[in-house]
Amino acid sequence: MVVLDNCVLSECFDLYADMLLRIAFNYVGNQADAEDIVQDAFMQLYIYKETFEDRTHIKHWLIRVTSNLSKNMLRSVHRKRTVPLDEQWPAQTPAQTNVLELIKKLDWKYRDALYLHYYEGYKAAEIAEIYGTTANTVTTWLKRGRDKLKLSIEEEGYEY
Amino acid sequence: MNINDFKNAYEGIHATPELKKRLMDKAAADSEAKKSPKKIRFLGAACGAAAAAVFILGGAFLIRWLNMKAQPSIVVTAGSMPVLTDTPVIASTTAAAAQPDVVFQLASDRSYPVDEMPEIDDKYYAEYSFRNVYDERFADAPDGAENWYEWVVTNKLSVDEAREALAGKGFDESETDAIATRNKELCEKIFADYGYKCSLNGSTAYMTVWDLYSYDIMDFYTLYAGGITSEDMYGASQRMLDIAGAEDVCNIAMKRKALLYESYAKKMDAFQNGINIESDWALQYFDERVTQFGSKYEYAGVTIDNLFAGLFTEEQLRTISETVGSADVYVIPNYWAAIVRMEISAGEARNALEKMSEMYREKTSEELFTEQEIGLITGESEYLYTEHFLAPCAELSCDNLLGGKLIVCGASIVTSGAYDWLLDYRDIDIESAAQEICYNLEADGYDELLGDFRRQLDIYKDICDITEQLGAYIKANDISLLEDSKPELDGETRQLLRKMDLQQLNGYTINGEDFYEMKLNYLAYVLAYAFQPEQAETIFDEVCEKLTDAAQKNWLIKKKYLYLNYCGAYGSDDGSVMYNDEYLSALLYATNYEYRISGGTVYLEPYFSGIIEYLNSWHIRNTAPMEKLSESVMQTLYEDKDSLSDYTITVEAPVGAITQEGYYNTTENIYLCVYGSDGGLISRAGSQNGMSGLDGFLIYAAPDEKYFDVYTSPNGEIIIILRTFYPERYRKEGEAFLFDEAAGELKRFGTSQDMPEGYNYSGGIFDYGDGGLEPYSDSEAAYINTEDGVVIAFDFDSMLIKSFQGLHLRSLVRGFSDSDIGYRVDGGYTAELYSYAVEGQDGYYSAERALQLCITDAGREDVFAAERVTIEGEGSAASQYFIETMRLSDGTQLIAVYGIFPEEESMLAELFRFDSSNLTLDKFTGEGYYGYSEIAYAPGCLTLKDGTDNVFLNSADQSEITLNSEDHTFIISREDSGTNAYLSSDAQ
Q: Which of A27, B287, B592, B810 is the most buried (most CB within 10 A)?
């Protein structure tokens, strides 16, 4: 069991913040909002009163909370109505930027699934556990996400 | 662009040390606050102040307005601009238009008397914003007090002690004096300022700096409505930059906000230049929102008038449309509905109710709540509470006897999040709903919050010198009715809805990104209760009787049979839809609902999306109700067609729209069920796919077209009915053929009237293009299209219907119906996978699949090759199939049909070789179990290497892909990282 304290919080931040930031980034598309979300997620963790089984449990918990917080932010009319800043994805090459832009257009479940699976190396069953769904559903997300990404990449004139 | 781009793209995203510092500082501050029992968290304080404002002001307003109005109504504003004033004008014009008696401000942490607002001051601007937004200055406030005045009073400091404590805190001498000497009046000004003064609807309200920062408030339209100009925003932006640039307050987030302000300013400039605010703004506002949401259909048929119909007077409606034009109005039907979720003590509830009753009685000489009712509300008996109070209360509400409406407005989000101000002290229940952060009201923190809240009430009462204290506060949490994550209603709500006059549904208009979904849910909730099987008809009739509008009543009555098949619905929180029979029912309901209220125009796209998805999954979960439902609906509509003739329906569901939504894979899959202007049925549009089981409802057929219905008996016999489609002849008689599978023959045996019992509908064959379908010569297994003379015949080997000439036809008998995949094969051919699913004993569904290859030419298709595909996993059936293609070195193409098996988390493939030189499609020997893996590659770039069937070469990067015959996995060896092929499997 892991008891949360500032040390654990700090450690978790070091371990997972990048990942969570990317997840949030997938949703909101700019680093500033993503940072806000990640900070909120860790604060939620900090005030969370239950214990965690292990670091993996915390990690899964954080992923889901980050995802939910991201969705919350997207849901707010504020965000709907506000004029987005022209922040760029912090990718290093134009191709990467384009990929991220295309990923950003995917539905959240595809984004999350693709990211967690291909970048973080999660299996479908693990992703399913995080999001409280079935592995089958995640597999479908992955498949559809890939298809959609592929289509959009090709539509952009790139080779997939 | 390849997978490495995907991976590398994220490499630039890293959490900064500043972010960590911010977090750890915040955690430290939080930890510190927890140590002292006197300390309260910022949120609690903010909420407390809000509550104080709410109830004190609310109480004051209540008293005043009760003296003015016979029918008090309550307005709860949430999340938006603060209330304000001692006049019946509030920041949210939608609420203002309701002319409420009582205003409860829920979300802002401050409310201000109109005539005491000071001018904005940059210094306070900075301090206040920091304190409230980032907690930084607030963390400096002693003992978590709301402000320094409160702290001085609470700690009973002497004047000197106070002066000492206040030194260096940013107060000037006069302010320090005011606080130290407990000059309440001055302190109120000090701590109740820093707001923008904005003109609104001829009156005045205030928006605090805090509000400007709030996500819920940082809203261009709200700012605009509040009279904020671009100059204001430019100024604010500059101030923020100045603040951010100051040495001791440097904050990246502040700079970001400054940029945001600037963007607002720019937009305001544009907005102001193009819009006549007095007359056009509402419409423009509406259009803007629609545009922003990406689809005008999202606001299907909603007009300002019907949006608020039944809630406001014409004059009020006009006020709304001239000002906000927003759909930001939620209505909940009675006081009880607002109280029910408060979880306050019985005594507090009693105090509140008695106070309300007293106020009401003073004005109207009538009782708002009887003693019995109060006892029931506050008592211990859940049974009494529900059965004896709620239902009568709901009835009172229906009869409009409770004196007005509890209106929740100004909320900037459509979900229950509008009330996060109270619930923000939340714990997350990770074990509950998968997609939502859940607010655990049972958690310890909630009680703590309430405790702080109450304490704040008292403090605020002292500050404002208002002796009236309400012992309870209303949380208008009935918006939870709209929670799309809620799978079903609790009994109380259902009781409520049971009694709710459906006419009020107009008032329950929901807006936002999940507009249609919310709407569906709301309607579904009503229906879910109203049409439970055991009492469906009775309640239905009761509901109909409540409708006073003849058109509504007629409309509803027509739909009776639709709803009798209905027993529940749910949606999802992410904009997607859930795919059960009930939900489709709700979709249909809503479609018709929109159709009704839109005055002749129906926008169906959102619903189509759901229907498409529904259909997409339906063949997997082939259950009976939908078929039953469709039959009922069709029959009902057929019977009612004359009464529908007054309506003209314009269908605006452009082909391809669904594809944009990403729900399906071709532009053909538009399903439409719309009642035409020709007296009822029915202009139906749709593709030829996905119609299994949905006979007569979503099928595509134009009048006079021929189509097949296919029925199967439990023993497997097949009867095919050749019908002519026309609305008035829906499921009319048709030629009947018995398909003798063993003999491979179709034998005409009469008409559909002669069909034996025990046959179930199992699919249809449609879409023959123009012309009719007639038996071809003496062959009963072949037909000729009279339009183009094309002969169509069954292929008894493949069980396919084949066209012999260039006619587009690609349906299958025996229920093969759903085209899972349409995939372009190199050379202009299209491979399509059709399926027929049956439920297996293990609970999974097995499926038969057929692969077809077509030549596509200008929208016409020839089926020239087909193969059965049956892929079975171990212990389960594939949940999804898809196909991919590759080219072999001998010039043929390889088509892999994959099945995904959830239990094994794996895929299984059957491979087919397609030879375009002689148009043959043959099984390929390289079948195998690939593990959970998948090869993604550009079609045509994979070639068979060295004559072996098991080793492929990716021509793009020369990587070698080997099929391991032992464990049936692909192995990829790359020579460089630039491959555009990859594996994602464990075997990798």
A: B810
Q: Do B179 and B190 touch, CB atoms closer than 8 A?
A: yes
Asked if B896 and B885 count as a contact pair (C-beta separation under 8 A), the reply is yes
What ipTM does the predicted assembly reach? 0.71
Nearest CA in chain A to B285: A81
**Residue showing tokens 């211990």:** B380
Structure confidence by residue, pLDDT tens digits, B82-128: 222 222 222 333 333 333 333 333 222 222 322 332 333 333 332 33
pLDDT of residue B355: 58
Contacts of A144 in chain B (CB under 8 A): 662
What is the pLDDT, as a whole number, of residue B111? 29
Window 18-37 of A: residues touching B by CB (8 A cutoff) are: 18, 20-22, 25, 31-32, 34-36
Asked if the Cβ–Cβ distance from A160 to B31 is below 8 Å, we say: no
- Contact yes or no for B217 and A78 at CB 8 A: yes
| Phi, psi angle pair for A101, to nearest 5° | -65, -40
Question: Cα separation of B413 and B399, whole Å?
Answer: 29
- Mark residue A23 as left, alpha or beta (left: phi above 0; alpha: psi -120 to 50; beta: remaining): alpha
Quick check: B97 and B320 in contact, CB under 8 A? yes
User: Is the Cβ pair A124, B3 closer than 8 Å?
Assistant: no
State how far the Cα of B18 lies from the Cα of B694, in Å rounded to an integer. Answer: 58
Q: Which of B218, B415, B665 sits opposite A82 (nearest CB)?
A: B218
Rounded Cα gap, residues B443 and B427, in angstroms: 7
Q: How far apart are CA A77 and CA A93, in angstroms?
A: 33
Q: Closest chain A residue to B20 measured between Cα atoms? A: A13
Distance CA B235, CA B885 (A): 60
Tokens 């899959």 sit on residue: B669
- Number of Cβ pairs closer than 8 Å across A and B? 228
Compute the CA torsion angle B241, B243, B248, B254 (nearest 10 deg): -60
**Left, alpha or beta for B903 (phi > 0: left; psi -120 to 50: alpha)?**
alpha
Are A9 and B24 in contact (CB < 8 Å)?
Answer: yes
Nearest to A17 among B15, B934, B984 (CB): B15
Could A132 and B23 be called an inter-chain contact, meaning their C-beta atoms sit closer than 8 Å? no
Q: Are B454 and B342 in contact (CB under 8 A)?
A: no
Among A122, A108, A142, A111, smallest CA distance to B907 is for A142
B852-904 pLDDT per residue, tens: 565 544 344 445 566 666 666 544 455 556 666 665 555 566 777 766 665 55
Q: What is the DSSP letter of B131?
A: I
| Predicted TM-score (pTM) above 0.95 | no
Q: Which two tokens stand for residue B800?
A: 């396919």
Q: Please provide the DSSP assignment of B475-514 as one string.
A: --GGGGGG-TT--S--HHHHHHHHHS-GGGGGGG---STT
Q: Look at residue A47 in the predicted model and tell me its pLDDT.
A: 72
> Which of B86, B39, B50, B41 is CA-nearest to residue B473?
B50
Q: pLDDT for B681-739, tens place per residue?
A: 332 333 223 222 222 222 222 334 455 566 667 676 667 676 654 433 334 467 676 76
Which of chain B's residues have a Cβ under 8 Å away from the Cβ of A37? none
Residue scoring higher pLDDT (B563 or B364):
B364
CB of B893 closer than 8 Å to CB of B874:
no
Q: From A25, which residue of chain B is nearest by alpha-carbon distance?
A: B13
Crossing angle of helices A55-75 and A6-28, in 10° steps, is 40
Helix/strand number for chain B, H first, E second? 34, 31
**Which residue in the set A82, A98, A124 is minimally distant from B220, CB to CB?**
A82
Which positions in chain A touch B252 (Cβ < 8 Å)? 32
Residues 6+ apart with CB under 8 A from A68: B435, B436, B437
